[in-house]
Amino acid sequence: AQSVAQPEDQVNVAEGNPLTVxxxxxxxxxxxxxWYVQYPNRGLQFLLKYITGDNLVKGSYGFEAEFxxxxxxxxxxxxxxxxSDSALYFCAVREDQTGANNLFFGTGTxxxxxx
Amino acid sequence: DVKVTQSSRYLVKRTGxxxxxxxxxxxxxxxxxxxxxxxxxxxxxxxxxxxxxxxEKGDIPEGYSVSREKKERFSLILESAxxxxxxxxxCASRLQRGLYGYTFGSGTxxxxx
Lengths: 115, 113
Known about the structure:
Chain A is mostly beta strands. Chain A has strands at about 5, 10-15, 20, 25, 30-40, 45-50, 55-60, 65-70, 75-80, 85-95, 105, 110-115. In chain B, a hairpin with a 3-residue loop joins strand 5 (about 30-40) and strand 6.
């Protein structure tokens, strides 16, 4: 069975500082990993995904994520946080097996960037 | 720009009412999904559909049903609304082929009183 853990409900970071939002996963086969962002009263927006290849994935709005197979992690990062990055972030995973077609989401991490 | 449109942003219904939440996508996606989002619980899958007239139960289907008569439209039905169904409901769609993520609608915040 697949699962995703986002160990931090809330992350606070000062504007201009680097940010990290953590995600670990558990799947039987190879993982496909995704990050989404949700702004207030909106749906989820796609940020980036890891399917295969380079472990460092770059996405929208200057975000990137590093796939670490040995630690089963896919942490979201940004070198310099903006106040506008304040939002709810979801990590999601899918297995690469036929029939296991759906994404499984973590519980979300609320990022607050302090001016 | 591709879109998933949910017909209502905010909805208030009474206990026992039959409630319809509508979702329409203009991307010719085969797969469509309904999630509910609650604080601390993340997104939980209610129902999904791989194609027209196909439906599969997700993790929390009790109290809900769905309809997919046309490819672009996926409706979530609350047969008899209850207060514990007060939540944010998110619709999403995806191409069947390829390793794509989901495209989400803006959500419907349903309050059952």
